[in-house]
Amino acid sequence: MTQQLADIGLIGLAVMGENLALNMESKGFRVAVYNRTTARVDEFLAGRARGKNFLGTRTPAELVAALKAPRKILMLIKAGPAVDAVIDELLPLLERGDILIDGGNSLYTDTQRRTRKVEQAGMLYVGSGVSGGEEGALTGPSLMPGGSAAAWPHIKPIFQAICARTPDGEPCCDWMGEDGAGHFVKMVHNGIEYGDMQLIAETYDVMKRVVGMSNAQMHEVFAEWNARELDSYLIEITRDILAYKTEAGEQTIDVILDAAGQKGTGKWTVIEALDQGIPLTLIGEAVFARALSAAKEERVAASKQIKYEGGGLAGDKRALVDDLRQALYAAKIISYAQGYQLLRSAAQVNKWSLNYGGIALVWRGGCIIRSAFLGDIKKAFDREPGLVNLLLDPFFRDAVTSRQGGWRRAVVAAVQSGVPVPCLSAALAYFDGYRSERLPANMIQAQRDFFGAHTYERVDGPRGKFFHTNWTGHGGTTTSRSYNV
Q1: pTM score, two decimals?
Q2: Choosing from 18, 25, 186, 272, which is the catalytic residue?
Q3: Of 193, 202, 229, 285, which one is the catalytic site residue?
Q4: Does the annotation count 62 as an active-site position?
Q5: Is 127 helix (H, G, I), strand (E, B) or coil?
Q6: Catalytic residue flag (residue 186)
Q7: CA dist., res. 314 & res. 345, Å (int)
Q8: 354 and 176 in contact (C-beta within 8 Å)?
Q9: Which of 290, 381, 457, 471 is 20 to 30 Å from 265 at the Cα level?
Q10: How far apart are CA 172 and CA 163, in angstroms?
């Protein structure tokens, strides 16, 4: 009797692969699994997959032979050379129209290159962002696929069956766009995640060091905030972290070393923003804050030599807690405004047709940055699909301007107390810069023209017409090449 073929194959039975395989099987799909270390296949089939609708395979050829046409193979392996190696191994085994899917955190330019390579071989390629962590993979992640458009009708039934749902029941998965669009959207998601986490950490730090709150008191505040406009997964887990105690009664948050790790997606986001000239200041500061935290021994030594003898908080502590709530929400808006500007720029550069409201909807459930707030972003792009900046949407404009008093007071209180708030303050600086009709860049242009004859534009001339001043009287009229902004 011929064995029933599987609906999809999965390579990589680490925690994400294992949980996604179980998720797909639970939605009625037959899944063929393969792992380079074949003992993992045996362990999985004898353990969590026991009695379920799986096919275990022990070679790439066996995996390919176990799949229905067009074959769909989801790779959940470490980003980088390993993905290229698996692609090279699979391509000779596949047929025209078969689909390879990379569900790891690959750099989007790698996905662009791989899409071209696989399509030239006659097959289809998808790079899909997957967010939600271990639990999300099992119960419903946010999925951000992009690549060969012809692949979407074939993978859509599986992807939209296993993904998370919004409170209205809409799937947190949609087609992002061509070649590397899916992985680019996931990269920006991760950058925003860096920003959100750092903003919450700074708020916690001010509560602890400036207001003098206990973990139990902060737990209550975050619980209250999670029932209001800050309702989100990260606020929710912060609430729970602050209340967590070991069986011995130890408050776990207090014994965790203050040195944060990172895997690189935040750094990629900032590098891309620099390349495209987008002021992604908040996420940049979040990445640098992790880098500074990692210099633990150096900071400990510096703390013994560099002192600040300023005063602490002189005002109402309860009022500062509410100011922090307003500051956190306003800065969060700035983070998303900057992230969406990077998405818009990348869409123009790469000729992607990104659905900005749809991206907010995909992030609405399942992913790490999921929050009620994302529903408001979806509405903003529904109102104005060509929205240039979230700060120009009436809802977000009013939300930030109405909170700027508390935001400014919170930053001042932190600065006066010597407590660093790099993201809260960078967001405020961006807000003040973006709303400024005139910035001091005229001085920078004068300096550049003085020392390097780089030229400048005039306020009374058309954009694109450049001038030079012979500042010293002996510089001549020769200029450097005009610049591009």
Answers
A1: 0.92
A2: 186
A3: 193
A4: no
A5: strand
A6: yes
A7: 44
A8: yes
A9: 381
A10: 6
